[in-house]
Prior knowledge:
The protein is an alpha/beta fold. The protein is built from 11 helices and 8 strands. It has one domain (3-235): Alpha/Beta hydrolase fold, catalytic domain (Rossmann fold).
Amino acid sequence: MNSKKHTWQSPSLGRKASVIVYGTEGTPMLAFPGDSAAITDWKEQGLLEALSYQIENGHNRIICVESIDRESFFNTEVEPRTRINRYRQYEGYIIDEVLPFVRKLTGDLFIMAAGVHMGGYHALNLLLKYPGKIQKVISIGGRFQLRHFMGDYFDDNVYFNNPLEYLPNLDDESILEEIRNTDIRLVVTPDDPYIELNYMMSDILRSKSIDHIFDYWIETGTNPREIWGDILQRHVP
């Protein structure tokens, strides 16, 4: 499988950051790692192998991005304010650096994003905040509630990055219409630890007249990676 690593000094993150691009043509998709995982998460979990047909036949180009969950939400050695501020820097990195890189590389304005658990959160949160920049999201067991990471701390940055809180209060019709023109897919399995959060998110989307797919994946097994791969095979095309 053709792959190439691209690294640059990130102004947003204040350090070098990388993406790994798999494939040479096709609709681009950002691949967000799972809970505090590394840029190699999709490869290690077998998710790239599950999409090998799409990649090798030029249907999709997968861009694996870094996660800074360990520097932000999962970093218990710093104050919650520092955690959420670091996440905001990550948001700037994806929106202001990675997406322009992807558009220049592929010449494609239609960009998808996908991930499992925290990866699903990153994908959906960025689409909801920037619906003109990401057009399709596949969130598998998205971990949409941030309060667990913040303790008693709360400010605007927490609010505006916690979609279960800000989306119900979003009443700007121009933004809502942009979101309605995207393709949102929430997928859960019966044993997913965040299944209730996904039901809540689906209810909020429905209350805002935002069409989306809620896929209750009845398949279960001892190896969730295989199930995640099957889910991606169905929903990526």
